[in-house]
Amino acid sequence: DSGVTQTPKHLITATGQRVTLRCSPRSGDLSVYWYQQSLDQGLQFLIQYYNGEERAKGNILERFSAQQFPDLHSELNLSSLELGDSALYFCASSRDPLNTEAFFGQGTRLTVV
Amino acid sequence: QKEVEQDPGPLSVPEGAIVSLNCTYSNSAFQYFMWYRQYSRKGPELLMYTYSSGNKEDGRFTAQVDKSSKYISLFIRDSQPSDSATYLCAARDNYGQNLVFGPGTRLSVLP
User: Fold this and answer.
1) Distance of alpha carbon A14 from alpha carbon A8, whole angstroms
2) Beta strands across the sheet bearing A74-78
3) Which of A16, A42, A113, B62 could lock B103 by a disulfide, CB 3.0 to 4.6 Å apart?
4) Separation in Å, CA of B15 to nearest CA in chain A
5) How many angstroms away from the CA of A72 is the closest CA of chain B?
6) What is the largest CA-CA distance in chain A?
7) Which of B109, B50, B106, B111 is nearest to B77 (CA)?
């Protein structure tokens, strides 16, 4: 158990809908990262937050947004969902902002039908 | 060209074999190199990380980085069926927070 908790584990939704994925980092970790993993694209970095502020942005679509709350948990919001958004979404956390030792959660499997 | 490349496998070896997993990368600014293990339907688990060139050993695992050839290796000694998983290499530079992952190599260790 990495100590990073993601909910829900599975999500099935229709195209055009909006969903929210939640992540609780390991105790004491200030950095939260979101990744998308699909069969054809591998593990792709989406966005990072450090102590409540956005720190780095990767290949995140405009339909996607995230935030980190004062208690350090983070949410990833996916809207206007398309079939191609079906993937595993992982959250990771680390103590430092430089992602040297990042610990991943178990992921949320999103299926868009 | 992707920044980090890996042979996707699958790679099948008998139990007890020495396994060699390799990655190449193109960004010469990369300084930190990581290996993650991912079991099916689970999150990636950090195995080891190294800074710059050199070797690092942890039990049955040895990570090697050769920056001159932009080559990263992970060796697994006395491989076990429980080592069957996908192995992902990752890299980043000194300043970036973004870890760039390879596509992963699927390893099967047969009893």
Assistant:
1) 16
2) A5-7, A19-24, A74-78, A64-68
3) A42
4) 26
5) 18
6) 38
7) B109
